[in-house]
Design goal:
The protein is mainly alpha-helical and 78 residues long. 78% of the residues lie in helices and 0% in strands. It starts with a helix and ends in a 16-residue tail after the last helix.
Length: 78
């Protein structure tokens, strides 16, 4: 009798776990489908902004030369 009750409880807990996992997976997949366009738009904006900043930095530093202070080692004879 004890084994039968334990089996029934295990079946109920297993069914509850399976149903909750299905519901959570459904909500997560719907949320992913809804947020995909927003994430793609933000990534595209960040990519264009990064390209603009790199191009701007390249043209801004092209005319001026900067010297980094520190030790100098001639490696042309190696």
């Amino acid at each position: 009798m004890k084994n039968i009750l334990t089996g029934i409880v295990a079946l109920i807990v297993g069914a509850f776990t399976l149903i909750m996992a299905t519901v959570m997976g459904l909500f997560i997949s719907v949320a992913a489908l809804l947020t995909t366009p927003f994430i793609k738009r933000k990534l595209a904006y960040a990519h264009t902004e990064t390209r603009f900043n790199r191009a701007h930095m390249h043209t801004a530093h092209q005319g001026s030369r900067h010297v980094i202070d520190g030790e100098y080692e001639d490696v042309s004879h190696r």
